[in-house]
Amino acid sequence: MEKRPETRLPTEIPVRVWGMDAEGKPFFQNATASNLSSEGALLSRLGHPLKSGEIVGIQYGEKKARFEIKWVKAVGLSKTFEAGVRILQGQIAPWGDLTAETRAASRLSPRGTEAAHRGDKRRFVRHRVNFPITISFPDGHRSHMQCTATDIGGRGCYVESLVPLQIGTDIIITFWIDSEKISTKAIVRASDPGVGMGLEFTALEVPIQHKLQAYLDKIDQGFASAAGQGG
Fold first, then answer.
1. Which of 13, 68, 173, 206 lies deepest, with the highest CB count within 10 Å?
2. According to the model, what pLDDT value does residue 70 have?
3. What does pTM read for this prediction?
4. Right CATH for 13-120 from 1.10.3720.10, 3.30.310.180, 3.40.50.2300, 2.40.10.220
């Protein structure tokens, strides 16, 4: 019996990727994974040239796995790269829970895949922009942390830090959208010593999520336009 191709999940998720680049130099960076399945994904916003056949590590949340690079291509004038990756035998995709939910929805209803895609539209694209935030603590006993998010969307961000907070730490995030000051409760979802931490906004109202996302879209488009004019 012919095996049916697995449904790909087009959701974009923030991941961390590390390994050796095409010049044999080690790298570790944030990126975006999409077109997800239990066997592979499309990586985008890669800032390092990679080489087909090389092995890289990919982390989503607290889960990690090793993948083989199947192909690489440069992306326009942005000086970034995209790569198709396939998981190594014996490994489990870090985003397995997401793809499992999609398969379950498809089995339960002929409209399952459509419903999954509708759900995907509610997810927010993460932007690789420098976005200043302040981290404070509910108990008020620790000093505020002035930080810069380097990967941010309407539901969370990644902050580079040599000494990140522990996973599960409850915090308060404050930032500005133009002249409007926004504060929200958040939690540390990922902690990478010497690299940074992933934060989830847990109490940001939906209208503010969309307002933040629109603001980030505008910033990113401005950078892209400036880069195009400079080229």
1. 173
2. 94
3. 0.51
4. 2.40.10.220
